[in-house]
Design a protein that fits this description.
Elements lengths: L1 H5 L4 H13 L5 E2 L2 E2 L16 H19 L4 E5 L2 E5 L3 H17 L12 E2 L2 H7 L3 E2 L2 E2 L3 E2 L12
Helix pairs in contact: 3-4
Length: 154
């Protein structure tokens, strides 16, 4: 919540939100039945509309950082899921490493198992293998972009 107040979020609202998340008890509902109480030790409730405020703030800060470090990366986000594309593999590598570092500083974890990397040539794939997330080399998947040419002679 400190990050939000530093960005101009009303302090009183941040305190209410912090209090709500620290006292929150969750139940998982499966097939109409509720499980035991869960007291989360970190994080915000998935599906909670207030969580979107923090997720949007985090992504905004990360994208502003990337604008300075790696200006040619194309960025996109859906809530807290980020996507990057860049013609310069080395710059993409810098961007991914910067995001992983920022996630660590913010107390987040970048999950390599949920991350996908696409390469369209063997050279790009080889270069991408040098990128590490949390000490683990990424495993890019081959991606072929085919151009389809229409026969206009008919």
């Amino acid at each position: 919540m400190d990050m939000l107040t530093d960005m101009g979020y009303p302090k009183a609202l941040a305190e209410v939100q912090r209090d709500m998340y620290t006292r929150l008890i969750r139940h998982i509902k499966v097939a109409g039945s509720f499980g035991d109480e869960l007291a989360p030790t970190c994080g915000m409730g998935q599906g909670c509309s207030l969580t979107l405020i923090a997720a949007n703030a985090t992504v905004t800060i990360e994208f502003l950082m990337l604008d300075k470090i790696t200006p040619t990366i194309y960025k996109g986000a859906f809530i807290d899921d980020r996507s990057f594309d860049c013609h310069k593999v080395e710059e993409l590598k810098q961007g991914i490493e910067a995001i992983v570092e920022m996630d660590t500083v913010m107390g987040h974890t970048t999950n390599i198992d949920k991350s996908k990397f696409l390469a369209n040539t063997k050279n790009v794939r080889r270069t991408m293998k040098s990128i590490k997330m949390n000490g683990i080399s990424i495993r890019p998947q081959m991606y072929c972009r085919r151009q389809v040419h229409k026969d206009r002679s008919k």
